[in-house]
Amino acid sequence: MSVPCVAVDRERGEAVRTRLAQADVLDGDHRIEVVGDVIYLPVTDAEAVPQALRDRVVERDPDARDRPRTPAEILGYEPSLERLGDIVILDEDDPDRAREIADAVMTSDIPCETVVNRASPIEGELRIREWDVLAGNGTETTHREYGHEFRLDVASVYFSPRLATDRHRVISRVEADETVIDMFAGVGPYAIPMASRGADVIACDLNEVAIEYLIENAARNGVADRVTAIAGDVRDLPTEYADTADRLVMNLPHSADEFLDVAVALAGDSCVIHYYDIQHEDDPFGPGIAAIREAAGDAYAVAVEAERVVRSYAPHEHNVRLDVRLTSR
């Protein structure tokens, strides 16, 4: 099977392997090959390879690596698992089955410190849920995503590792010296990588614990000087930041439409809005486009630059993203 690999001189192999691992693109399912003076490092996604190494990507057919002992091998069936740092997340209604899976996870070769099971839906303005800790003794972890680290507590903040690829696509569009406002910033999975690209980022969240983690994560990733963290209601931002944003992130899919008047107030003369929504599959983008046009009124021309289905959310419902440019008339 053809697999993208980064080809480098053997003497650079370990340094490049470390860099790819930090970017979370190293493919652990295939063996690293050495041919003469060249080492071939398999990667999971050629587009996610750091820019400086993109011209080194080639297609190879490496041998599959022997897989470690997995929970499925122990259980005899494939459980549904989600990884977040060193926490494994389950979503099981049957407590006995959840306990069985947790025991298998801890017995397996999966690097894991804690296993938790979802005990409630996401609730309230702060978008957090309750958890049953089935193994281990803590809900705090460090998650690594495309070369950045995020410290967080799953019991106190909202974070979805499932959105990593889509976040990366949005972040890759940011240019140095932009002013970005992340309206619902959480612990910083958009704000911090955008600051790493040279943007000045205002990051706001109603959850004070999330903002504390965001401040820690900005320092951890070396961008504290380019991130302004604000704990509070995003509706208050236009008082200081009206007409300033070159780019807005609106990742609040259930109710982002309620904040479009705030987004328009924050938008500069030319501003891209990354607007997340949840809609029926029959018309996943129409309601969001209509809401943005209504909020923009006569003040801005509205141009849809991209429409993307991020993931299936529920039967016949999609989590979608609209990239829309507002241009001052």
From TrEMBL:
CDD domains: AdoMet_MTases. Keywords: Cytoplasm, Methyltransferase, S-adenosyl-L-methionine, Transferase, tRNA processing. One of its GO terms (cellular component) is cytoplasm. PANTHER family: TRNA (GUANINE(37)-N1)-METHYLTRANSFERASE (PTHR23245:SF36), TRNA METHYLTRANSFERASE (PTHR23245). GO terms for biological process: tRNA N1-guanine methylation. It comes from Halorubrum vacuolatum (Natronobacterium vacuolatum). Pfam families: TRM5-TYW2_MTfase (PF02475), Trm5_N (PF18093), TYW2_N_2 (PF25133). The keyword tRNA processing applies. GO terms for molecular function: tRNA methyltransferase activity. Signal peptide: none annotated. This is Methyltransferase. The keyword Hydrolase does not apply. Residues 81-328 form the SAM-dependent methyltransferase TRM5/TYW2-type domain.
